[in-house]
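Q: I'm writing up a methods section and want to include an example of the input and output format. Could you take the sequence below and give the corresponding predicted structure tokens, formatted cleanly so I can copy it straight into the document?
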Amino acid sequence: MKPLKSMLTTLSLAVLLSAGIAGAESHCFYVGDPSYRDVVKFSSDAPVELIEGSTNKIKGKVCYDEKFTFQNPEIRFEVDLASIDTGIPLRNQHMRDNFLHTAKYPKATYTVTGIQTTTKPPFKNGQAVQLTATGNFTIHGKTVTKTVPLKVTYFPESDTTRKRFKSGNMIRIQGTFPVELAAHDIDRPEALFVKLADTVYVTVDTFATDDPAALK
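A: Here is the clean output for your methods example:
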């Protein structure tokens, strides 16, 4: 009985230790600048007109492990579509009511299911890391799989980072990707039909802190 009891005790300690290590390895950053300095832009370069719009309302969470493997990424972004501004109030209303139907589909979301990177070791001060994210992109109630190249730059807490967040280390996330309107069952309204391209390009430039209290 003693050998069995000893083996069970050892196994229990090993499980607890591995769970503690796994928890310690996880590191999360949070998107949601209270001063709304993050930027999400879209650009539609149609033959008749170039239309651009932007919003500062983006939230998200980025978690990675200390070994920088991204084996089980917890990464998600959410954009408030009703706040997009194209510079013309009437066009904004058309975009919301007749194009994106934001009363029914107020958010665009991107949930990452996998990350590819060749960069090792983990983040260093001022180091720009090139990542390729694959995940589920949802807009207008339709979800498609989308691969997005990202550049992520890490900054340890300093006087510079505290100009954006009161506390915490900081990362900057940048990326551009296409959105095909037909893939999301988005019909161009008559007022915008000849002015919108079949594919629009979305650019994200956002900052995140590992201290969620700094977002309040």
